[in-house]
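Hey, weird one. I pasted the 3-alpha,7-alpha, 12-alpha-trihydroxy-5-beta-cholest-24-enoyl-CoA hydratase sequence into the form twice and got a warning about non-standard characters only the second time. First submission, copied straight from the form history:
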Amino acid sequence: MAIDLDEALNARPATREISWTRRDVLLYHLSLGAGARADTEPELPYTYEGGLQVLPTFAMVAGQGISAGDRATPGLALPGIDIDLRKILHAGQALRVHRPPPASGTATVTSRVADVWDKGKAAVIVLESTAADGDGTALWTTTMQIWARGEGGFGGEPGPDVAAALPEREPDVVLESPTTPAQALIYRLNGDMNPLHADPGFARAAGFDRPILHGLASYGLVAKAIVDGLLDGDAARLRAFEVRFAGTLLPGETIRTAVWRDGGRLVLRSTCPERDDAPVLTHATAEVAS
């Protein structure tokens, strides 16, 4: 296994076409718990095609949902990077929204390796993807950090050392996002069909007591909590959201998110209260419009 830094960083960007429908968006919202109390609060902006808004984190799954049929989720084929995929972890995720995503549409996604950092015993691969509509107008940019165990020591730069410092005061608000035992089973219909999130035997073989929730599900749950709890339910006001995945969550557990306001910037930390506030998302920030 090896990393050729020059080839990885100078390769031609890869492009692919994606499309999605209102059904994909509705399923995504339902997989994050929208409409869970439909008898008293149906959350129609998330659950009904009339006046449907799109949670910006839908960008994480656009083109992979039910309208994609049985097409496989795009694999991780990166030029200049030959690594053991069994040793990688999704370490961090960022999203910047350039324009609110439509409830249905098509886009061209352009992806490139933006950086590769040498952490000694591991490498961090930074993969950047931008989706643009048919007129070439950018809709969103995502940045994924991939932690590759055993792939460091290739002589690259270590990358930034970002501190996880939190404000030295009580949070301005605390948001809670409950999950259900079936949450991962629903969320995986967005495209990530990894058996780790469904098969108890597979999960035990991977070192977990039972199937775990997708990291991107936690990411979406917290984004929805921000929109509902701080932005008057207006998803278009969430402009950017960045996190590191610090721990797993079991379906049925709760995500507790402490939020510190700093003008249009939010600092966040998400934990699991059922496990003594074990960290779930750290180094987390969001940018919001007034």
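That's the output from the first submission. The warning seems to come from a hidden character in my clipboard, not from the data itself. The two ends are 48 Å apart (CA to CA).
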